[in-house]
Structure formats: C-alpha cells, structure tokens
Write the structure tokens for this entry.
Amino acid sequence: MLLALREVKVRPQAKRAAVRLKSRHQMTVGLFVALLAIMLGGIGGAQADVIAPVGGGNLGSLDLVKPNEGMASDEVDTSPKMCTQISEGANVESDEPTTACMAMAPLENESGIQARAMADDDEVVGSCSLVPGSWTYQRMSYCLGGSQITYTEYNRNNPSQILGSAILEVSSSGTLSSRSGRWEEVVTVKLASVKDQVTSLAVAFKASCSTGCTAATPNPWAGSRLLSVGQSVSGSVFFEDTPASGGISTVTTSYVATVTQPGTTPLNPDVSWTNPRDIRCDTTFAKNTSTGCAIPSVRASLKLSLAKYGAAAALYGFAQQQFTQHWGATDSPLMREANEAVHKQHRNDTCEGGASRPFTYLLANVPDDSCDEYPFAATHEGGSNGGLCADIVPLLQNGTWRFYQDPNAPAVTFNEPCVRGHVPETLNEAAGGALGNNSLNQRVLDLEKFTVAIVA
C-alpha cells in the first residue's frame, strides 16, 4: 500500500491557500513527465507541450482579444463670458477706456503641449493622452487636453468695438499614487495668439481641492509670468488627501487662472474651472495603514499575460470566453472580496474539503498540478461548491492553448457556476499574487467591480 503524503503550503494570497493530497506514485510519474518534456525539447514559455489526459475530450482553444484600455473622457465645459471694467486711467495703449472679457472653451486644434506623468516601478502608474478640448482619464491618471482662454478687450463707450484679443491654451496632467495620498499635477499655459492692442499677457495660476484635501503647493509658478506670443510657462501643483484609518474620501480639484494685460487694472481678471470627475482616496489597505488614490469612475482591470502566467491566465481567458457567465468581462465584472477569512472559506468550498466532489490531481499530464479556481476565491462571485464546477486541463500544444475535459469529472456543459483548472502550483500562486497586488495598485475597494484581461 502506498503511503499518502499531505503537503501544506502557505500561499501569498488566500486565493492560493490549499492543502493538497498527493501520493508518492503520483509525484514520481509527474517528475518523469517533466524530465521527458525537457529531453524532448525543453520547457518553452510558461508551460511545455504535454500529453492530453486519456479520455478527456478537447473543449476548444483560446482566442486573444484586445483588452479594454480603461480610458474615459469628458469634454471641457464652455464657460460664460466674464467681462470686467478696466479703470479709466489705465494704460492699454489707447486713450479709450476699455472692458476686458475672458471665456474658457474647448481647444479647436492640437496644442502640441505634452503631458508628463510620474513613474514608479513599484506600482501601476497612470498615463493619459491629451485630446483637444477634453478631459481624459485612466484609473490612475487624468489629463486636460487643451482648453482655450479667450481674452478680449472692448471699448467701454462703444461695446461693439474690439480693441484687441488673445488666446491662451491650458493643458494639465495629473498622476495619482496607489501608495500615497499626495500627487502631482503638471500645468502648462501658452499664449497662442495675440491681436491688435493686446501684445502680451501676464498669467498667474492657483489650484485648490475640496474639503479634507489640501493643495500643498497650489501655485505651479510664483506670481504672474509675462508671456509673449508663442511662449509658455509650466510648473507643478501638489495635492494631498489624508483619510482617517479605514476611511474613504472624495476629492474635487479646481483651478483659477488670473490673466492681465500689463499696464491695466481689471476688476476681476479670473477664469475658473473644475475637474468634472472625482478622485477617491482611501486608507483601507495594509490593515488600514496604506493611503492611495484612484479615479473610481474608470473601472480597474487585472491584466495577466500568457507569457508570465501561462496555464493560469489561459484558464481564466477560456472561462471568460466560453462559459455563459463569462466572469470578468466588461459586461460581467467581478467584485473584490476584502475579507481574508471569506477567501479561505471560498477556497475550501471550491477546491478543498468543502467541495462535494474532490479535485483529482493529474500529475501525469500537469507536473506540480494544483486546483486553480475561477472566479477567484478573493471575489464576491467565488466560493461555489467545487462539485458543481467544470474541471478543465489547459495545455500548451504546438504554441496554442487547448483545453481538455478532466476524465475524472462530469462532462463540461459551459453552464457551470465555476471552473477548477489543473494548473502548475507556481503559476497558480503567481496569478494569486498578481490579483492581490492589482487590488492595491489600482485601489480596488471591498465589493468594487473590476475586469480581467488576458494578453499575450
């Protein structure tokens, strides 16, 4: 009689915390298959070509589709014209008293001003494109892609007479941090054109944010900067939000540009605007000690590459494409479950003792086999009875991921409430770690929805 061995391994995420039962005979067979694969050509990529299980029907293959990039945009609001009286004794290169007006509108053409995003190798950083006349957003960044401020001077005694005008272009780019409530926004203002009596303009800038948030450095440059046509000025503003331990706050950022013509004294030279989408900051990770911020209106996405996560990523992609509930797709997102005790219970119910039908390891086909559940145990949708799951063997054969029926399990109908995949334990653990890191890097809160995207 063969002596059964029980291996207990602590995994980085509750999703991967399993107790597996193997026999010495199974491990010997698995080792032989692995060595044979190496002798026949080596292990290429994440998993070598191996034999399909005897009696396991071919369920299909994986088709890669371009993932949703998680981008959103809003057009710049057109502001009402703001006219201010200029004092009669002011010098505007004319003896005629004037009125100055300012209005903000979408930029009609590309400004050529580029946004700058901070980089951090330890986290997912944001980046966004400058779309003329629009705010654009990703989960961890936002950009104002060029709006124009029109400055116009009129003859106060003859309001139909324009004495001069100018157009300023405003662009900005903010990158949030998943590990800090402080972030930077880079602001650029350019004097794009002038006409008649307006030959140069002085520009000051100030940022602010809603209650609970502080504009730690509200001015991107000191005082007013005098710009001639074609010149621009850039600088950074810094915001900081500090929610209480375990708390969540909503932040709105606002801006004021003060524009004057040298020698004049306008009564109200300001034009203002507000970021139309909220920023959310929280201190709910790492036992309520880690603060970070994100754009909650842009849904988070877990991206897993086949090159790195192999059979695990292939399993999730195939389940998403082929099963009726297509978990993790854009129209069927998953919800994060933050309670680690629930993770363990979900894992037990699907892959361990709580399942009404045990998971049977196939070490002859998948060396270092493990039970990989989808939907993840660390989601609200996880935790189905493993006896009701579809048991699938993902195998890389001739460069294509193919999927086979587990011969020890009922026939797959593609209507099952869950999938249990035969996945090498190292890849199972790596994917679990990526899930946990992604929740932190994109600040996915408890019961917040996210998608899963499988890429090459």
Notes: The chain is about 15% helix and 40% strand. Helices lie at 24-39, 306-322, 340-351, 425-441.
